[in-house]
């Protein structure tokens, strides 16, 4: 069977990594790339470098990866849909709900495979956590807490920390728990003088009864990527920087001391750090999209799921503006 013909538009920070993976992905041939600023990182590997999506389409693509700034996602995605080209669009799907809806509808009505690059779903620690939660190892999920903090990335100029980083936590929370957001309340801050927010604290309610808390900012002088999922049997702690997953079990040691035995909460139990395989998340994401194109039933982040994430992100922004809890009862 001939290889799938892939294109890539956007050769910046993420685009260069997409180029590396696409250039070595089994069953895929990266035939051309595009960026109006040229190949500044030298990742084309001798392939044609075009300046725009229309020129890229002349290379007869089966699918295209879109790694341009968020403000350009709609224009490029709609052009790909019109040309009948499947697409993997970097997260977030688009800059707002209306644009995300138009992209989603364009791909769905044409029967095209469209996905969003929420790469955290492919982190080995979170994939293990989801599998174990689905198997009942945590029991009922009570709470999800995420911390995604670090220095300001100078390359981001068109969205704030909520849509750039916070969408990771929104997507991974719904995916790991298999619950949707029903309400959010948030507060933001702008400490760096930029147009968009650079710090947010979010409290959320999920459809299955779990509650969430997300701390996200660009103002911390170290990187932290931590997800803690607490349930009736204990807590999973996923560090997605190291792809480590740890389980802290609820203690079940009998307490004879009367004052302690009357306590109805939980106590510390065994701690397990799992030994898990750690494939590169970006490669796993590309493999899943390739397999989806080949009809192999791969787990991709659909554009419909990406639309829901943008809807939650906008509810977070609305809550921060209004100071009120925002309902997502139809989301």
UniProtKB/TrEMBL annotation:
Q: Which organism is it from?
A: Phycicoccus endophyticus
Q: Which SUPFAM superfamilies would you find in this protein's record?
A: Glyceraldehyde-3-phosphate dehydrogenase-like, C-terminal domain, NAD(P)-binding Rossmann-fold domains
* Name this protein carries in UniProt: Gfo/Idh/MocA family oxidoreductase
Outline the extent of the GFO/IDH/MocA-like oxidoreductase domain: 127-236
One GO MF term on file is:
nucleotide binding
Q: Which residues form the Gfo/Idh/MocA-like oxidoreductase N-terminal domain?
A: 5-118
Matching entries from InterPro entries are given as: Gfo/Idh/MocA-like_OxRdtase_N (IPR000683), Gfo/Idh/MocA_Oxidoreductases (IPR051450), GFO_IDH_MocA-like_dom (IPR055170), NAD(P)-bd_dom_sf (IPR036291)
Q: Which domain of life is it from?
A: Bacteria
> Tell me, what's a Pfam family for it?
GFO_IDH_MocA
NAD as a keyword of this entry, yes or no, is yes
Keywords annotated in UniProt: NAD
């Amino acid at each position: 069977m001939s290889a799938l013909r892939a294109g890539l538009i956007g050769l910046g920070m993420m685009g260069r990594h997409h180029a590396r993976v696409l250039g070595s992905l089994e069953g895929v041939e990266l035939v051309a790339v595009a960026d109006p600023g040229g190949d500044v990182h030298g990742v084309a590997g001798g392939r044609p470098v075009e300046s725009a999506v229309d020129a890229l389409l002349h290379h007869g693509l089966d699918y295209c990866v879109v790694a341009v700034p968020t403000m350009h996602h709609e224009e490029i995605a709609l052009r790909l849909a019109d040309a009948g080209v499947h697409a993997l669009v970097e997260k977030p799907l688009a800059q707002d709900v209306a644009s995300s809806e138009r992209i989603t509808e364009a791909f769905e009505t044409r029967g095209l495979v469209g996905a969003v690059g929420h790469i955290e779903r492919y982190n080995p620690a979170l994939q293990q956590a989801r599998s174990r939660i689905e198997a009942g190892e945590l029991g009922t999920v009570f709470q999800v807490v995420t911390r995604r903090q670090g220095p300001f990335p100078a390359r981001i100029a068109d969205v704030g920390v909520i849509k750039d980083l916070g969408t990771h936590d929104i997507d991974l929370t719904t995916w790991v728990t298999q619950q949707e957001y029903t309400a959010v309340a948030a507060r933001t801050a702008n400490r760096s003088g930029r147009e968009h927010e650079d710090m947010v604290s979010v409290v959320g309610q999920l459809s299955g009864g779990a509650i969430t808390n997300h701390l996200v900012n660009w103002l911390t002088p170290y990187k932290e990527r931590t997800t803690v999922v607490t349930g009736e049997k204990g807590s999973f702690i996923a560090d997605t920087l190291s792809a480590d997953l740890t389980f802290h079990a609820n203690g079940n040691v009998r307490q004879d001391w009367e004052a302690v035995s009357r306590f109805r909460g939980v106590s510390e139990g065994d701690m397990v750090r799992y030994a898990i395989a750690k494939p590169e998340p970006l490669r796993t994401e590309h493999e899943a999209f390739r397999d989806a194109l080949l009809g192999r039933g791969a787990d991709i982040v659909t554009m419909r799921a990406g639309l829901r994430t943008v809807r939650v992100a906008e509810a977070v922004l609305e809550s921060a503006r209004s100071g009120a809890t925002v309902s997502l009862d139809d989301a």
